[in-house]
Amino acid sequence: MWIISRIFGESRWTRAIFIQVVAQAILAIIFEAVIFSYQSNLVDILDDQKLTNNNTDITSVYANAQSLLVYFALFIVAQVFTVILVVDAIYQKNTIQLIALFVFEWGMAAYSIIQYHQSQTLFQGDDSVVNLATAYVGDALYASRWAEITQMVIMIVNSLVFCFLAYKLYLEFGWHIYKKIGADLTMRDRYKMYQIFMMLLKFDFFFFLGFSVQYLALMIVVWWPNSTSPAARSELVRELIEHLILSCAVTIVMLVVAYWGLRRERKVHMYLFVILAMASMAYFIYTLVQISQYPQKFLGSKAFLTFFLCVDMVLILVSVPISIVCLRNFDLGLINHISHATASASTAHSMTPIGQEKSNSHRWSIE
């Protein structure tokens, strides 16, 4: 009950932004599911034609259409991810996360435009390729156009509304942080770095696992059926195991140890995070080189895999220095502020005002 009252009862702006992102998620998921359905139908048609017609153009379009299904699913996951982050930002009164969500919202709006462009330009090339579109898929190629245009309008309008509501909450949360940490500018800077790193870990989770899922889908759905020889399948199995270890397992362990290291101020955990982040960076660079050297192998997924890899590398380049700054702030009193605030908030009691602490208390007061 306290959590519900904290989300809905703080102000009209917290209630408004929660309702806005939930409404956006519901509408976006509905229309994305419609687009996914139309695209699946198109993939089925192309699959039938690929089997009956030995045509490289059809095979190319089929690979592109099939890969798009993964990105439609990721877009749906991104909507749920946004709702969770907004609730978390309200709960934590995190202004940094609001700014990141502002960028993420416009990123999803841009994706809705790219999605429309990709699905409507699957058949590209000379007149023979265009004729294939008419002969084999007919109206199926353009059936989802109305849903994609509606999706673009929903995302752009909601991004504009989110900008306004996020600004209002930004003003409210700034005052909350002042009350929580006090007037000590050094401690407020430490808390700001703590917030930034926590926010980065959440986006690391989405984009790192987003890349991992895309690559897994590419190997299982596209490469495996096309691997007919035992040697090719053996090589694919080896690559699959490497990806599961270097991307999926390392990513999960890296983010978990970073979270617990930051929350508990464990330096060993933070050192381990830096080491695993460097290992992930090496793997991302290796994969990016593979995509550049063998573009035909990544047909239909090259653009988005490259995008996710670049975002992942940027996140590592930002997360590692921030983690080092947070590491240097360990054992300087910040954890007492955070743990004291959490304990006091959960019992709904006011904290001791500054200057009225008990003499045997080593914790700083926040309010």
From TrEMBL:
Keywords: Membrane, Transmembrane, Transmembrane helix. InterPro entries: UPF0658_Golgi (IPR040410). One of its GO terms (cellular component) is Golgi apparatus. The chain crosses the membrane at residues 16-38, 68-91, 98-117, 149-170, 196-224, 244-262, 269-291, 303-327. It comes from the Eukaryota. PANTHER family: UPF0658 GOLGI APPARATUS MEMBRANE PROTEIN C1952.10C-RELATED. This is Uncharacterized protein. It comes from Hesseltinella vesiculosa.
